[in-house]
Specification:
223 residues; TIM Barrel; four-stranded parallel sheet; three-stranded parallel sheet
Length: 223
């Protein structure tokens, strides 16, 4: 597993961000870093995504910032040029995976079925997004495939929220979970930064309770 993804375990919950206006980027970066989740997966669903990544990286160089919903090699290039440290895709596109491998770019492709997981293993991938998580069987599905696919570690995303994330985090095969509930675009557009900060703090607390300080320290040393 790439060192970037090893660091995911210490964050636990990766905020998945959709942002239409880059002027919110610095404020959100501060809130994430100052309240226990120093990471962001900025989805390439908006025209502002690349600028948001660039603003976050420049403002808070201490945080992990990557690009999500990346579908093409052109988007990979744009994301990396903007400062993205990792790439996440909703599905498994061998062309994008191999391109990232050739350029030493940490990349987590999306998988849902055993066939896709085997394809990922065949490409030399050992860390995958499991998407959409809840709609695809959730934690029970991951437990079911964990034994035959011992090479893989997972980042479930989709339908994850404060009410169901803790059992995921307690499973050793899950490095981190992706979630958007604490960074909803509607809250940012309304300027409700106190609410966002509270939700981020609560999410960070869930990680600490689920994994415990000793466990986090152990993985930090291993990385």
């Amino acid at each position: 597993m790439h060192d970037i993804f090893r660091r995911f375990r210490d964050v636990g919950i990766i905020p998945v961000i959709v942002m239409e206006h880059e002027e919110h980027a610095e404020k959100l970066a501060d809130i994430l870093c100052d309240n226990g989740l120093p990471c962001a997966e900025v989805t390439f669903r908006t025209e502002a995504a690349a600028k948001v990544i660039a603003a976050m990286v420049k403002h808070r160089p201490d945080m992990l910032v990557g690009a999500g919903t990346v579908l093409t090699v052109e988007e990979v290039d744009l994301a990396v040029a903007s400062g993205a440290q990792f790439i996440v895709s909703p599905g498994l596109n061998p062309t994008v995976v191999q391109y990232c491998q050739e350029h030493n770019i940490p990349m987590a492709p999306g998988t849902q079925t055993p066939s896709e997981m085997e394809q990922a293993i065949g490409l030399g991938v050992d860390f995958v997004k499991f998407f959409p998580a809840e709609q695809s069987g959730g934690l029970n599905m991951i437990k079911a495939v964990a034994a035959p696919y011992g090479q893989l570690s997972f980042m479930p995303t989709g339908g994850i929220n404060a009410d169901n994330v803790q059992p995921y985090l307690q499973n050793d095969r899950i490095v981190a979970c992706g979630g958007s509930w604490m960074v909803k675009e509607s809250l940012m557009e309304a300027g409700n930064w106190k609410k966002i900060a509270k939700l981020v703090q609560e999410a960070a607390d869930i990680v600490r309770k689920a994994r415990g300080k000793d466990n986090l320290d152990k993985h930090l040393l291993a990385s």
